[in-house]
Amino acid sequence: MKVCIVGAGAIGGFLGVRLARLAEADLRVTALARDATLAALREHGWRMQTADGLLQAPAATADAASPADIAALGAQDLVIIAVKSQSLGAVAPSIAPLLGPDTVVLPAMNGVPWWFDARPLESVDPGGRIAAAIPQRHVLGCVVHASTSTAEPGLVVHKMGQGLIIGEPEGGVSDRARRVVALLAQAGFNATLSERIRYDIWYKLWGNMTTNPVSAMTGATADRVLDDPLVAAFCISAMHEAAAIGRCIGCAIDETPEDRHKVTRKLGAFKTSMLQDAEAGRPMEIDALVSAVREIGQRVGVATPNIDALLGLTRLFARTHGLYPDA
Q1: Catalytic pick from 84, 204, 262, 266?
Q2: In the predicted model, what is the mean pLDDT of the chain?
Q3: Between 20 and 30 A from 312 (CA), which of 147, 194, 195, 306?
Q4: Is residue 84 annotated as part of the catalytic site, yes or no?
């Protein structure tokens, strides 16, 4: 079985190191990476620091900047996309040579994916270019429940969580989804099969759509965001709007925002992924987490004044700091 992981950052490394450690002679895992990450993988292999010590595995690599390297890999059985959503538009054309008739594409990414709506979402897939490069028939939906970061290129730090939820975009259960879940479970992940992956994606988004950008703008850990009653009330109002959108698209959420905040509090004083990006001077993942929610709301006729304010403030903050493109 041939597996290619596109992007070997925090999530790509989290997945790559455990898959590469599988003692199956017929499983080949290749990292498609570039620059310092590619150099680190070639020198040290896969590396992940865990509470139990350092996990390592040899890494087969290909240069993401080299069309010849990518073409040489040929069609893969499984392509795991682990780049940030704002980078996928540039990366998607390079994935095409990896796709055979039966290749499965698993986007292990935050927020609303490009395939989520029947029509391309301009906020995450302008002009439908990603959908053209990666047809939906290849795609399995994925939700990652794990906290990871990168201490340096090629070195992942795993803090908590091993959860992966896998499912068909159209719902139901398929043999290919079962096979992917079985592979991930064998690698040590808490992998589960979902018959409603769109709901699972929306539910996770509902929980982090507010805390991520608010933490990035303020520099506060998630616990401090929720400890401020005015900020928490603003987040709750935005979550009510997202829940109303969810009811219109078949992703109704039964919990209250207050219930969801209780779950977030159990995670303690953690830095959200968007805060980590802001502190590191990396582009912020605004569109998949906030812009897409606003766009879907407009399509279904749900007013989103609080989400609009959240998007405007976050986007302005990011543009001011060079972390989001100017209009």
Answers
A1: 204
A2: 96
A3: 147
A4: no
